Amino acid sequence: MSIDTELQKHYSQLLGIVRPWEVKNVELKLTQKKVEIELGWQWGAAKCPECGRACSIHDCAPERTWRHLDTMQFTTLIRARVPRSDCPQHGVKTTIVPWAAPQGRFTLLFAGFAVEVLLASASISQGCELLGISWDTAQEIMRRAVERGLERRQLEDLKHLGMDEKSFRRGHSYITLLTDLDESRVLDVVEERTTEAADQLWKTLHPEQKQAVEAVAVDMWEPFIQTIQKQVPEADIVHDKFHVSKYLGEAVDKVRRQEHKELMAQGDETLKGTRQLWLYNPQNFSPDQAEEFSALKDLQLKVARAWAAKELFSKFWEYQEEGWARRFFKRWFGWVSRSRLKPVVEVARMLKRHLDNLLTYLKHHITNAVTEGLNSKIQSLKAAARGFRSFRNYRIRILFFCGKLSLYPQ
Ligand SMILES: [Zn+2]
Questions:
Q1: Of 260, 296, 306, 402, whose CB count within 10 A is highest?
Q2: pLDDT digits (tens, 9 = 90+) for 75-114
Q3: How far apart are the CA of 19 and the centre of ligand 1, in A?
């Protein structure tokens, strides 16, 4: 057996090429560090890609090239002219080759390997370097992988979803995320944070899937509330307790700033450098901080009352029964209203308006913590990419890394 025949046999085995395909020629281009493998169609009928019927061959399509896994450090390419079947029903069609997806520029093995490398790389440019491919090629591989994954995705068990916004570009540019809280995955993402934009997200689900949704965790953001009421009217809206805590925290900070200004006007520096103390969870204080804070708390400060209102509200989430939680809220609201701490009163009024959808928490116990976690993962994707020029690429990247999709070919 000559070296050439040996090589052909070797590559047939390596590629898993079976008849009627055969390795016709293996060409080593040493100076270009390339291996080119030419495949040929031996004989016989060609399957129609539409119906699978064995048809006669009309002709062969012009030669195409696919990038394959490297052989040692040699870039390896496959070349072939693919037969076109002549189906009585579907006419002349290019048959499907076993080593690549239709229209794909890579073999399935290469695409699978590239997905693996890109998933493991710290950045896409690092992945490109390891694979010896361009940025556009990597983007194309990820796009195809995401398309495959979305087609295969099982969404039968969607029960608890999350909807949240995330800033996209500088200024007031946002995207909206729909997440599956039970599986910790991003379902899809759209530009903007309007009702119309969020409506688009629901279109990715079938009517039966929407009907199965039990609850959606969401901030008290009117466009999102509207889209949920319209698209999944059977589902409970659950306002996220972390968002509530954030609003109350901001109110405490506003009270502190105002009071600090008033005190400084009288030369009193009591609140200087205390910002973090009022925002921290007291359980995370160092012994020094705990001492300082406990001294501050005992002074007759407005910020201490605001802080107490925020702390007290956390009890709300611990109730088991709606009736008790309602009574608690009423007392808390009354107390806050009498406090005359305007920023806290404003948040309390907002909570009162949305009370029904705060009480749903007692039933479902869902929050957007999962979504926030995915949000920070997305943030690091954005940082690694140094921003995204197009939303389309951003979406592909998010779904590639945070969609928990089955990304591999085959
Ligand atoms: Zn056919």
A1: 306
A2: 999 999 999 999 999 999 999 998 898 888 899 889 999 9
A3: 21
- Residue owning tokens 């779904």: 399
Residue 307: CB atoms within 10 A of its CB come to 26
Residue range 309-350, pLDDT digits in tens: 999 999 999 999 999 999 999 999 999 999 889 999 999 999
Distance in Å, CA 96 to ligand 1 centroid: 12
Distance, CA 93 to ligand 1 centroid (Å)? Answer: 8
pLDDT of 385 above 80? no
Distance of CA 159 to the CA centre of its chain: 18
Q: What is the pTM of this model?
A: 0.83
In whole angstroms, give the CA distance from residue 164 to residue 216.
10
- Residues 373, 334: Cα–Cα separation, whole Å: 35
Q: Is the peptide bond before 287 cis (omega within 30 degrees of 0)?
A: no
Cα–Cα distance, 183 to 276 (Å, whole number): 34
